[in-house]
Design brief:
Shape: globular
Helix content: 10-25%
Oligomer: single chain
Structural class: alpha+beta
Radius of gyration: 12 Å
């Protein structure tokens, strides 16, 4: 739920990650255009982007992760699994899901 603070989102992801044991039942998940994916790693983004867009908006994609707006700033999502619990690189996440800056995660 990206309407929470960046630190709350980071703690939720950390608290629900049992890596290397994978389970989609308790993992932190989100969706983009109805396609679910699992988030294994996140950290608050200390960079500034000006005005904070609506929570869930992708603001930046780098080799370090996907920056997403939260209620009070931004969080960088860093490690991912697809719905079948297969590892997704950032490049593969962007390619398969079509996520770009400005995309809105559910």
């Amino acid at each position: 739920d990206f309407s929470c603070s960046a630190s709350q989102v980071e703690r939720l992801v950390r608290g629900r990650s049992f890596h290397p044991l994978q389970t989609s039942f308790v993992s932190a998940q989100t969706r983009y255009r109805g396609k679910p994916f699992i988030i294994l790693g996140a950290s608050p983004d200390r960079r500034t982007f000006g005005t904070v867009p609506p929570p869930g908006t992708v603001t930046d994609i780098t080799n370090d992760g996907v920056s997403v707006a939260c209620s009070d700033g931004f969080v960088v999502l860093r490690e991912f699994l697809d719905a079948d619990a297969k590892s997704l690189s950032i490049d593969r996440l962007v390619e398969y899901y079509g996520i770009t800056p400005g995309s809105m995660l559910d």
